[in-house]
Amino acid sequence: METETIPATKGRPREFCVDQALAEALRVFWTKGYDGASMADLTEAMGITKPSLYAAFGNKEALFHKALDLYESEKLDYTRAALEQPTARAVAEYYLRGALDRHCGGEDPKGCMGLLGTLACSPEADSIKADVVRRRASSQRALVERFARAKAEGDLPAHIDPEGLTGHMLAILQGVTVQASAGATRDELERLVDTSLALWPSK
Q: 99, 176 in Cβ contact below 8 A?
């Protein structure tokens, strides 16, 4: 765990755990979104001064990008494991049930940080939106490639479009995360996932 000494505005240098401070910033962005998270919210949650935040992380935009890196590495690990499942349907089930576990339970905020954090971004936050879109496109490409391989292997019917199937699955995923943030119960969202999987194309 990294500890950094940052010059305080007055007196002795202030030490703080960079990893813990970033984890707290992630929670603030996840809960309030990029525009909704003020510098006062961030510094209070992180337990540091504004000059210390700038010195350790750069500006608010740079901090959000670092928080998004942490979110992807720690909170979206199930998406990488999903791609390794033996069948296309197993990929989809692992992905959707992983989203249920991540976004609908535990102590983390509800919903997807990348999606909810940028839904109401101001024009000044275009680079934030662009980063989230780029990351989402990368994940989408990985799923399209996985479903294309499943189709080539005969695991999916010949008439199925891997891009269309990926888009359908991600639409369900986004519905799950948005509804989770709006207060839907886990039982309600499990029924949504169960219904989607029941409609999965069979050979």
A: yes
